[in-house]
Amino acid sequence: VFPGNCWAFRGHQGQVVIKLPVRVHLTAITVQHITKEDSPSGTVISAPKDIAVFVSLLGTSVDADREEETLLGMFTYNVEKEPKQTFLLKKMLLPRAFSHVKLLVKSNWGNPWYTCIYRVQVHGKMENQKASTKGQD
After folding, report:
1. What is residue 136's predicted lDDT score, i.e. its pLDDT?
2. 3-state class of 125 per DSSP?
3. What is the pLDDT of residue 54?
4. Which has fewest Cβ within 10 Å: 35, 89, 124, 126?
5. Which residues fall in a coiled-coil region (predicted)?
6. Which of 18, 7, 26, 37 is nearest to 108 (CA)?
7. What are the structural domains, with CATH classification, of the chain?
8. Contact, 28 vs 86, CB < 8 A?
């Protein structure tokens, strides 16, 4: 993680859909930004603030062309805490694995021109992983 080496988008709102290499039963998501000390400007106002995480239910509805999403959680990335923050996701009513995760950044910490995310990690168990396996992300 180096200053300026981030996924940046214009303004204070943006979204990204992440395609996972395998289907995963999701449990948490980690978001990372740089620290104030690492920032050339001494600020981290480009860090995301309010974040929502969704999964796509594409192909599960009667109208297969219509994409439906389920909200797994809304979180606030706190620039006063550690740069790497993990947020637990809501448990699904039906145990199901997903191949796509959408990260929606609703606001940042004050930069009107752009928002930066340095790292996103998705945690969970792979769909075909045996239930006895513990501690693997």
Report:
1. 53
2. strand
3. 94
4. 35
5. none
6. 7
7. 7-126 (2.60.120.260)
8. yes
